[in-house]
Amino acid sequence: MKALVYEDVETLIYRDVPRAMPKEGEHLIRVTCVGICGSDMHAFLGHDDRRPAPLILGHEAAGIIDEGPLKGLRVTINPLVTCKTCTYCLSGRENLCPERQIISLPPREGAFAQFVAMSESNLVNVPEAVPLAKAALAEPLAVSWHAARLALEALEASADRKALVIGGGAIGLAAALALRSMGVPDITMIEPNADRRAFLRDHCGETASATCESDADLVIDAVGFKATRALASARVRPGGVIAHIGLGEDMGGLDIRRMTLQEISFIGTYTYSAQDFRDTAQAIFDGQLGPLDWTERRPLSDGARAFADIRAARVAAPKILLDPWA
Amino acid sequence: MKALVYEDVETLIYRDVPRAMPKEGEHLIRVTCVGICGSDMHAFLGHDDRRPAPLILGHEAAGIIDEGPLKGLRVTINPLVTCKTCTYCLSGRENLCPERQIISLPPREGAFAQFVAMSESNLVNVPEAVPLAKAALAEPLAVSWHAARLALEALEASADRKALVIGGGAIGLAAALALRSMGVPDITMIEPNADRRAFLRDHCGETASATCESDADLVIDAVGFKATRALASARVRPGGVIAHIGLGEDMGGLDIRRMTLQEISFIGTYTYSAQDFRDTAQAIFDGQLGPLDWTERRPLSDGARAFADIRAARVAAPKILLDPWA
């Protein structure tokens, strides 16, 4: 099969590789759409020790089961594989399973390829009326859905629910969409890139600001750098909550004195529970997260250029979807 | 009246000052015991912009109402004065009131004095059987009670409740006592000072370790320095909670990458709600927090020496109580 292989730092090669081999209980899935995530870019730049070259990246995929009794079933893929037996798995926090694996991290190859293998319990059936290009967004949307849910659960019942979302990429946009679908009416987005702000306005119906002067009860940091954490901890109201998704810089930025004196909570969030993934997929199918027509589609064979364009900030769309069969 | 006045950085003078003057609705209280807090030491060293000299420090006090119809009533003092009308006050989070005042911060003088003024709603009646030297501990114990309560509320119901308390001073010891009274059986304390560890063992029945190799679902950082936050964020289990009380250093220390990937929550905590203060006082009165006999008592007139001894680490007891009438 064809795959886009991360061969070395800043080097992606589109080439033939052995076809994905399903293990027992797994299905072979013909990938029709696979999104490029910030973490793929992070790995491409050599900044993620968890993803050493050579490796097939990509974990935001939808496609069609290619073999067996379920052949032809349209599915979106939860890429997080967990043990199902530990305390975390049994309490619905599968993302904390100590045995967790995710496609695109060894030992599992990713989905920047024509086929990928995955067990049935990680697949969500996609209704015929829903394009697979929308269904492929379930993974990044679930990341933000999960963060929004945890943040709202942590917020005191008596608090206002004014929200600030830092970052206008796919995760930030998805956080705004998730919060709105959960009943949060007043959401401010912060995005420093003017092209991206224009795209958000023209194609997503979202107003983003370059800087932030207002405060909020709930802040979602969808970037994860010192500067964004500094902004989050300066702008969150007393008693408020910061939900932190990004992995931009490992340390620093938080004003811990202010967070202590004003009783601010910081919640690290990573991926999603299996239920969050299913809930997000259902919200997509039901149209709760909007038309989701803000993606840009390119052939997987041109994937290396897509990475270069994202890196050079030449892409205004929050998400590029690659097509392994174009 | 006599008072111990913070005159300049590292300068405390015991001298005559005008007697405290109750405003309308306030009582004049004859102070019988007042504890030295880490934040008093912080101010004494010139490290707290909120407490500029000249100022009477001290906010952990118990005493006897000296005038009026309630004359003779034995009370412990909640030093936190709030507006009672804002959203925070009305929802029982008075410590987040934007108008909050605390005695020993301008415009309110503190309790290192023979008298202090305080409104009746901030006073808790102390039963005759309870010595005022124990009742004066309500304030520091309430700080830890509040942090322990918030941490337990934030912890997932399915999580274990193994606890780690960093710091064996009064706040750390009080956190261990509060957690135990709330039903947490497995508590590890960390205290680097060998004299203090020996005191905790011999006088408080608590085992503290110099270093920590084990992990915990719940960590209370009762110190608040970079190094203690680094320890907290390294030792807390996936999905766990760090409750942070201290104001040692303003920034840094947290391993935010780990906190994000392992979904760790950090909760800033400051003082207590009015209900927490009352609950803590009741727990003292009921003996739930142990004999509370681990304090050292000195005359207020010798307060400057007490500060010097604490600073030079010559005090093993977690708390010195000063007596303005000795």
UniProtKB/TrEMBL annotation, chains A, B:
Residues 24-128 form the Alcohol dehydrogenase-like N-terminal domain. GO terms for cellular component: cytoplasm. Its cofactor is Zn(2+). It comes from the Bacteria. Residues 170-283 form the Alcohol dehydrogenase-like C-terminal domain. GO terms for molecular function: (R,R)-butanediol dehydrogenase activity; metal ion binding. The keyword Oxidoreductase applies. Pfam families: ADH_N, ADH_zinc_N. InterPro entries: ADH-like_C, ADH-like_N, GroES-like_sf, NAD(P)-bd_dom_sf. GO terms for biological process: butanediol biosynthetic process. Keywords: Metal-binding, Oxidoreductase, Zinc. PANTHER family: (R,R)-BUTANEDIOL DEHYDROGENASE-RELATED, SORBITOL DEHYDROGENASE. Belongs to the zinc-containing alcohol dehydrogenase family. This is Threonine dehydrogenase-like Zn-dependent dehydrogenase.
